[in-house]
TrEMBL record:
It comes from the Bacteria. Transmembrane segments: none annotated. Signal peptide: none annotated. The keyword Ribonucleoprotein does not apply. The lineage of its organism: Bacteria, Bacillati, Actinomycetota, Actinomycetes, Kitasatosporales. Residues 666-735 form the Fibronectin type III-like domain. Gene3D superfamilies: Glycoside hydrolase family 3 C-terminal domain, Glycoside hydrolase, family 3, N-terminal domain, Immunoglobulins. Belongs to the glycosyl hydrolase 3 family. It comes from Streptomyces cavourensis. This is Glycoside hydrolase family 3 C-terminal domain-containing protein. Keywords: Hydrolase. The keyword Hydrolase applies. One of its GO terms (molecular function) is hydrolase activity.
Length: 773
């Protein structure tokens, strides 16, 4: 290959599929220069950026447009190499008419990696069916400050939960033949003050023990094909130019053999935002040298600027060779280099005309459905397991399994009561792209919470007013809401966020918050309705946790849903009625006060409440919290092996019994407490969890094997070590609710461990004979 041919494999072009079935057209963006495909294609093309996620296009017609473009690309370059097409898939395939699943924060709330894997496989199959090869998900950033706008895109504030859930997502996506992309590598979520793209101030130990473990787990266990560098710099070194991170750690230590792709415009940001290079050519050389293989979303630095640097002898051509080998190896694994490669994607095979020629665009419209009944059922299951019951004074459930009929008159009040998109995050297609096309139908069914309640409570009269906007300052509607609340039996108050981008929402990329007060005047609406004396059930449809003030003590119940997707309102309504059992657990703590950030449950002793500070960071509801409609008794703790060498393992078991009269799910969470360590440690950190689904009166015996490796941390010398000494294994219902404590001891010398250490404890669950509740 000539140098231009090699370089052209190292960048993408942002395009939009034609809604008339013609070839894709380059997408013009204010951060990129115009691109002429005719000038590029004779040398080949590495990637096509977001052909379905740029503008609304019928899936079948878009697939035809992409196929025709691939045919052109193959014909134009002398090796016949097609482009790799990538799309966003953070909460489902980000295409018009595709299923909108719950956002990643809801995945974390399920504490159910296998269900997330099943969802990801479904997303991957839909992407593959229309000709897409790579998905830009999942996000492995660990929440460090809930004010950050992209909290909704994360799985939570604990690295073990993030790692297990995202690794499952990667396995699902890759099982469908789609390349998953880990992002953002690494530290993006730890930006100062929760501001998007702000500098990251953290020590190497926090980075090693909190930020990096999810990436390490996914690389080791999932077969992931791609990693995306983070926008941010850590201690002055931008991730896009960090060779120790992208090559030394990721490849040389962990053994990653896929491609490293740039976050959009991230290489150019080395010049424009970070100021560590003086030209786009220098930016290209710095990123390529560090280990970035592909520039996205379009060519800015890896084109002529890179070629000029090579010609001047400032960038060795061997770096291009290294990257292009990785890119071509990935294309080979995907079958794009096979002699019998066909641009026509699988979903069009079933709707082709004679001789395998696709029908015209008008005949194709509606031929491919990306929001099938099976998808919606899966979206419903994820949403139902993700909704968290935070508090309940006995008002819930309203009907099922109860001798009490549903309230005769229910008011559904609040800015998210009758808003169809209140269930969607900022990377869902209707919000991310559809908001720029208000005249185009949304493409999927999005029942509002009011509509879901009408459906769920057919014998109740449902009335509704908004009361306020999500983020407006107008309080004139509160009086009407209060008047309505005084004339009903129950209020369901729908509060929370509106997803958007760069300030156009209250949650989402670039929508950072100064504090965790409910946006706008929602807190005033909440307090006014609590004053009425009518029972108020607060339903939060949000992208981050918020301080809820009086509601923590005075609301009849609080239900938290993190942008639960297209079936989300039905999931909430079915939990309210009792038709489904609440099983979600908090992936992030809910603060008691709005100004206590940054704070997570992973706090050292000095991070807890004390007399030395007037700020109390104690949460209203801690990480892992979630109520059910039944009760569980924990007991019979047996520490079978309470002493182990630093290379050994502990063994223990306990019994969890459903003592109530309804079936339910308990999530047994195991936290490690290390009372004396050579460096400061969190008071507790999650090292394992298991979901237990139990009918009334049924019990399970849970046996646990805990490797000493799980007690490892980064010591003073910069290496991860396991130290001898006493530990506590706290078997807990949440980070703030320990039920049983096993005191164990590690013996022997300090042991240094590396990336081959054991990452998981083992659970073996045995059902016990039935007993009376």
């Amino acid at each position: 290959m000539t140098l231009p041919e090699k370089i052209h494999q190292l960048f993408g072009v942002w395009v939009g599929a034609s809604d008339e079935g013609g070839e894709v057209a380059p997408f013009q963006h204010d951060m990129e220069d115009s691109v002429a495909l005719d000038d590029l294609l004779p040398y080949g093309l590495g990637q096509l950026t977001r052909p379905f996620g740029t503008a609304p296009v019928d899936p079948a017609v878009g697939a035809l447009s992409l196929a025709r473009t691939q045919e052109r690309i193959v014909r134009a370059n002398r090796f016949g190499i097609p482009a790799l097409a990538h799309e966003e898939c953070l909460a489902g395939f980000a295409a018009w008419g595709a299923t909108a699943y719950p956002v990643p924060l809801s995945w974390g709330a399920t504490f159910h990696p296998e269900l997330v894997r099943e969802m990801a496989a479904a997303i991957g199959r839909d992407m593959l069916s229309v000709g897409v090869h790579q998905g830009l998900a999942p996000v492995l950033d660990v929440v460090r400050d809930a004010r950050w706008g992209r909290v909704e895109e994360t799985v939570g504030e604990d690295p073990y939960l993030v790692g297990t859930v995202t690794t499952a997502y990667v396995r699902g996506l890759e099982s469908a033949g789609i390349v998953a992309t880990l992002k953002h590598f690494a530290g993006y979520s730890a930006s100062r003050s929760g501001r998007n793209l702000a500098p990251v101030s953290m020590g190497t130990r926090e980075r090693a023990d909190v930020i990096l473990p999810p990436f390490e787990m996914a690389v080791r266990e999932s077969g992931v094909g791609s990693v995306m560098h983070a926008y941010t710099d850590t201690d002055g070194v931008p991730s896009a130019a960090d060779a120790e991170l992208l090559t030394g750690l990721l490849r040389d230590t962990w053994g990653f053999d896929g491609t490293v792709v740039a976050d959009y415009f991230g290489i150019a940001f080395l010049k424009t935002l970070h100021g560590v290079v003086g030209s786009y050519g220098e930016a290209a050389g710095a990123a390529l040298g560090a280990g970035v293989d592909v520039e996205l979303p379009t060519v800015k630095t890896f084109g002529a600027p890179l070629a000029d640097e090579i010609a001047a002898g400032r960038v060795p051509e061997e770096l291009v060779d290294r990257a292009v080998r990785r890119v071509l190896a990935q294309k080979a694994r995907l079958g794009l280099l096979d002699a019998d490669f066909r641009p026509l994607p699988p979903a069009l095979d079933a709707v082709t005309g004679k001789d395998g020629v696709p029908a015209g665009p008008h005949e194709l419209r509606g031929a491919i459905r990306l929001d099938t009944g099976a998808n919606r059922e899966l979206a419903r299951r994820v949403a139902e397991e993700a909704v968290v019951l935070l508090s309940n004074d006995g008002t819930l459930p309203l009907t099922a399994g109860s001798s009490v009929e549903a309230p005769a008159r229910i008011a559904v009040i609040g800015p998210n009561a009758d808003a169809p998109t209140a269930v969607l995050g900022c990377y869902s297609f209707p919000v991310h792209v559809g908001s720029r096309h208000p005249d185009v139908p949304v493409g999927i069914e999005l029942p509002t919470l009011r509509e879901a309640c009408v459906e769920e409570f057919p014998h109740s009269e449902i009335v509704s007013v908004p009361g306020t906007d999500v983020d407006g300052s107008d309080t004139s509607g509160i009086e009407e809401a209060v008047e309505l609340a005084g004339d009903v039996d129950l209020v369901i108050l729908a509060l929370g966020d509106r997803a958007g981008l760069f300030g156009r929402g209250t949650s989402g990329e670039g929508c950072d918050a100064p504090d965790l007060v409910l946006p706008g005047v929602q807190r005033q609406l909440l307090d006014a309705l609590l004053d009425t004396g009518t029972p108020v059930v607060v339903a939060l449809l949000a992208g981050r946790p918020y301080a809820l003030g009086r509601a923590v003590r005075e609301a009849a119940a609080i239900v938290q849903a993190f942008f639960p997707g297209e079936e989300g309102t039905r999931a909430i309504a079915s939990l309210l009625s009792g038709r489904t059992e609440p099983s979600g657990r908090l992936p992030v703590s809910v603060p008691a006060a709005p100004g206590s950030q940054p704070s997570t449950y992973l706090a050292a002793r000095l991070g807890l409440a004390g007399e030395v500070s007037s700020v109390d960071p104690t949460p209203a509801f801690g990480f892992g919290h979630g109520l059910t409609y039944t009760e569980f008794a924990w007991g019979d703790l047996d520490v079978e092996n309470g002493r182990a060498p630093t290379e050994g393992a502990f063994a223990l078991s306990c019994t969890v019994r459903n003592t109530g009269d309804r079936k339910g799910t308990e999530v047994l969470q195991v936290y490690l407490h290390d009372p004396v360590a050579s460096v400061v440690q969190p008071v507790r950190r999650l090292i394992g969890y298991v979901r237990l689904d139990l009918d009334p009166g049924r019990a399970a015996r849970v046996r646990m094997t805990v490797p000493a490796d799980l007690a490892a941390f980064t010591g003073r010398g910069g290496h991860r070590v396991v130290e001898p000494g006493d530990l506590e294994l706290r078997l807990s219902a949440s980070s703030t609710d320990p039920r049983l404590t096993a005191r164990v001891t590690l013996t022997g010398p300090v042991r240094t461990v590396d990336h081959t250490r054991r990452l998981h404890m083992e659970f073996v669950t045995e059902a016990l004979p039935d007993t009376c509740p």
